[in-house]
Amino acid sequence: MEKVKSLDIVTSTVTKNQGSKTVDLRNGSTVTEFILVGFEQSSSSTQALLFVLFLALYSLAMAMNGLIIFITWTDPRLNSPMYFFLGHLSFLDVCFITTTIPQMLIHLVVKNHIVSFVSCLTQMYLVFCVGVAECILLAFMAYDRYVAICHPLSYAQIMSRQVCVKLVSAAWLFGLINGIFLEYMSFRNPFCRDNHIENFFCEAPIVIALSCGDPQFSLRMIFADAIVVLLSPMVLIVISYARILASILGRASSSGRGKTFSTCASHLTVVIFFYTSAMFSYMNPRSTHGPDKDKPFSLLYTIITPMCNPIIYSFRNKEMKGAMVRALWRTSLA
């Protein structure tokens, strides 16, 4: 009897594991905190180097995207649907990197990598919401290029200001609603296993793998959602650019072809960066994943892509270059 009583006491005792709190495994949710492993296994010198590198990239991404938001919303010469969408894309990128990178920078400096359950849940929802909205917006940007190149005479009528506002609103609304669904699927099971997340932010597939019971249903539902969210816009993008390519090849002017290719190449480069990393993270079997594979792709779509987007668009677009020069000139005069 004494052994049975002592066993019950042990199973109901609250234990501590590097800041995590647990309760009786038979009574539901047990984990109240997560530990983001991130780069804590790296040496101090490596962490210092990563901090300087990521801080520089984050600052550059914020500055470049902020500049694009400013000039696309204030420069009257950029009053077209393409730059309207580009301004909102930069705003999404700012939201995206701010959700994940500042926390990673703090964890590279301090030794305490603990995040509360609520903080992890909130971060994951914001990543879902903004990421899904960006997927949809990239598809709308491809459709905008298709209308501009293949139906130039009807472009102003088809892509009116009201239509553009509705498309951007639809991207945000779908992101908000889809984020709720993905959040529910990620946290539907209680957590009573290891609370160490092998990444620098709360990424859904890794968090789900820590939940009690069978996580396969949640992973399958997220995989099915990724097919809709990633592949459906991808189909629209492929169809749009296939028709654009057919229209370009039918033109006799080589200069017109070059200008059109230059306009579309920027968007295609951004699409390839973003979709490749997102598909690897959410559409690959978890058996093929690991910390060494997850972190590079997570870095690609959380900081590298948001940083590259404004650089790609500004360097390949004469109007953007001119608008940036005018904005900097006005700032220097002020």
From TrEMBL:
Primary location: membrane
Subcellular location: Cell membrane
Membrane topology: Multi-pass membrane protein
GO-annotated molecular function: G protein-coupled receptor activity; olfactory receptor activity
InterPro entries: GPCR_Rhodpsn (IPR000276), GPCR_Rhodpsn_7TM (IPR017452), Olfact_rcpt (IPR000725)
Pfam families per the UniProt record, alphabetical: 7tm_4
Domain G-protein coupled receptors family 1 profile: 64-313
Keyword Transmembrane: yes
Residue spans crossing the bilayer: 48-71, 83-105, 125-143, 163-181, 221-244, 265-284, 296-315
Domain of life assignment: Eukaryota
Stored CDD domains: 7tmA_OR2-like
Gene3D superfamilies cross-referenced by the UniProt entry: Rhodopsin 7-helix transmembrane proteins
Gene Ontology CC terms: plasma membrane
Keywords: Cell membrane, G-protein coupled receptor, Membrane, Olfaction, Receptor, Sensory transduction, Transducer, Transmembrane, Transmembrane helix
Role played: Putative odorant or sperm cell receptor.
Membership in a protein family: Belongs to the G-protein coupled receptor 1 family.
Entry protein name: Olfactory receptor
